Amino acid sequence: MLLADSCIGIKTxxxxxxxxxLDADFRIEHTAVHINPRLSLLKKPFIELLAEESRPLWxxxxxxxxxxxGFVGTFQLTLIDQQKRFPALCSVNxxxxxxxxxxxxxxxxxxxxxxxxxxxxxxVNHEMIRLEKLYHYIIxxxxxxxxxxFDLAKLLGTNDHTLKESFRRTFGTSIYQF
Length: 178
Hints:
The protein is an alpha+beta fold.
């Protein structure tokens, strides 16, 4: 569950993927995580979410991104949220022919080592795998119109109704409003 008064909304335990779309000035244009509506991250400089030791690296990334269409890099950054520090592995993608960038952060919140046997009944959640593929497809094709829900579902091996409902349930919005 997301923290109600949290700046970013990082879970208190486990792993979480948080995605940010940044404008040409590296301000947050959109975020793909459910954040308390009272919190205003839009137009906030992304650097303000970073711990002090991560800022020099981010400033270097900001320097090289403007002239690097198609740039992709992965960096370890530390995010701050309500004075708590969260290490994150961040992939930074510069969108081709756009001033925008996408930051996908895998945030490690109080991860503890697993010392047991994985139960035999653990199965792969195919719905989540499809949604992850759809999410990455959308992010990689932001500058293009999306195919129809029928075509997306066909591409992902499901039907359009299931895909639309799963997406809405997971992301809190429709595929095309995302």
